[in-house]
Amino acid sequence: MYEQIAHSLLNSILSDLKEEIRQHQLQHFYTRLGANFYAIHSLFRLLYGERDDFAQQMHRLVETMARAYIARADALKEIDLARERDHSWFLDQRWVGMALYADGFAGNLQGVAEHLDYLHELGINLVHIMPIMRCPPGSSDGGYAVCDFRDIDPRLGTLDDLARLEAQMRAQGMLLTLDVVVNHTSDQHEWAQRARQGDAICQDYYHLFPNREMPDMYEAAMPEVFPDTSPGNFTWNEEMGKWVMTVFNNYQWDLNYRNPAVFIEMLDIIFYWANRGADVLRLDAVAFLWKRPGSVCQNEREAHLILQLFKDCCQVVAPGVLFIAEAIVAPTEVVKYFGEDAINAKECEIAYNATLMALLWDAVATQRTLLLNAGIRNIPSKLERATWLNYVRCHDDIGWGFADEDIIQAGYDPRAHRSFLVDYYTGHFPASNARGQAFAFNKRTGDARISGALASLAGLEVALEANDSAAIDSAIRTIQLLHAMILSFGGIPLLFYGDALGTLNDCSYLEDADKSMDNRWMHRPRLDWERAARRRQAGTPEFRIFTALRRLIALRKEIPAFADLNNRELHALDNPALFVFSRFDPRHGSPRILVAANFSLEAQALPLAPLRQQGFFRSGNARDVSSEETLRCDGDYLNIAGHGFLWLRDA
Ligand code: OTU
């Protein structure tokens, strides 16, 4: 949009740019900046317009973008142009992701490069390497307490190792996803160290308070993220004689985005990793970016403005790079991270679908899909050019973050139901064979979340110990069912390393003093490659899980209706154990797929009449693409085995 104030400011900024910048070939930079400048200026003014140095800061912002654009390699600029032409490329069903720790997966970055063939074998072509930036020795929240945003943790390798890995992945058509921890730094970051020494400029990077007045005001409304290990949201610092805002662990200092210097620094760090070849950047804890006393300090309007501004600026410098919003918040809030009041995603193109994840675990525990159906129906629809990251397990705990109204709609009492889920997954519920642990138990609210490896939560650990082959079969079916859901639901499926091999809880973290307080480490294993080799040995659980998932992944890639183009319909059927939806292909009109899942351990009857009314099974037969079997559909019902699923296409 053209607007005089913004445009004349842009002209003056551009004519002031230093000769060393202007001498470069900046054609695409100028056209993109011209296109986005009105938005960038408006957002920056909404956030920082009150300041005397607003024009200067705006100037710095443009210069930062220009320098990052100049530093961007030609090969990456080519990719940007190609992705501009094919701007919905990431909605395609061919993408299948995995999140892994470089050290847990293969020792370090070099090890990851050496094990890319494993990922290939499984069909993975998007790899999220958990945080690799430099952290202090000792506790670092699994890499989320960064002390140098521009270097790689020496325990994992070097920038050169990353460059080699990136080149290798690119040559094999794999996407690289890296974390940028935008909300906080380690207390050992240079800014924090200088702040402690009294540097006023660095003190302004954080939220510091001389006494309890403001912290108390904040605390009245703020929840606690880690209530048992890091209670409260502030930490006293003796050296400065000040309270520091530390929403997560006490060694993670929250950045102060009221200061435009913080915004520009973090934007420049986003550019830095984009220019190192990341295709996708996972922005950590984005819901927390803006703190307002008296509010819960999550999902504030300004947090969205900051993300929009990150996006608008990144589109100028590196338009091919996507953002993932890591916002584990209520379903109605999470869709806002795609951008509000827009048609296309204008914040983050991808967001974690924590709602689906928790609902799937709810369906497993209850053997009922009442809440799953209610919860999915009530997820607000998302924008175009936006997609979900669908996952069953990740490196974090499982929180029961679905809406209370949905729980009520499903016929349960919210408090009692959430505590049932904790009992179930910690194995305290009589019929449960899950073996998780409670995480972040909050004495005040009674809330708890769940840690544990997927296979252990699905009952495989208990079954193997008992050497009970029926129970082993059942756990393996559960693991397949859950993955079949994230592969077909719509969005990018993100597997968690280890899960395709049925990796169980790993309690060795208890011997490490830097980890023992945080039981999320029980599901962040060090992969045992000897055990992984059993994926080739018929009959082993590793073989059974791996081959099944590899097959489903390969099938997904061949089914155009599984691309995420707002092409899903939920089907409400009169059976509380079934989850049934269909996917259609709006682009090529290839066949619809009806996904029918049975979350009960007993076989269930899928009623066909209501589906026939919607145009399915006209020929009387259907093909289950997942098993390559043709099924007769001319009767009243189709049988689905306990924890079974079908991917049905008209035959
Ligand atoms: C994120 O977590 C990371 O995924 C966690 O591993 C980090 O501990 C945390 O940020 C701090 O960097 O912020 O938006 O276990 O679900 O803290 C949600 C709790 C987050 C996580 C939550 C999450």
Walk me through this protein's architecture.
It contains 25 helices and 25 strands. It is an alpha/beta fold. It folds into 3 domains: 89-185 and 259-560, Glycosidases (TIM Barrel, Alpha-Beta Barrel); 186-254, Oligo-1,6-glucosidase, Domain 2 (Oligo-1,6-glucosidase, domain 2, Alpha-Beta Complex), CATH 3.90.400; 563-650, Immunoglobulin-like (Sandwich). It has an 8-stranded parallel β-barrel, surrounded by 4 helices. Helix 3 runs antiparallel to helix 14, helix 4 (54-71) packs across helix 14 (301-317) and helix 21 (460-466) runs antiparallel to helix 22 (469-488). The longest helix has 22 residues, at 27-48. The N and C termini lie far apart (51 Å). It binds 3-O-alpha-D-glucopyranosyl-D-fructose. 3-O-alpha-D-glucopyranosyl-D-fructose binds at residues 141-142, 144, 181, 225, 248, 284-285, 287, 326-328, 395-397.
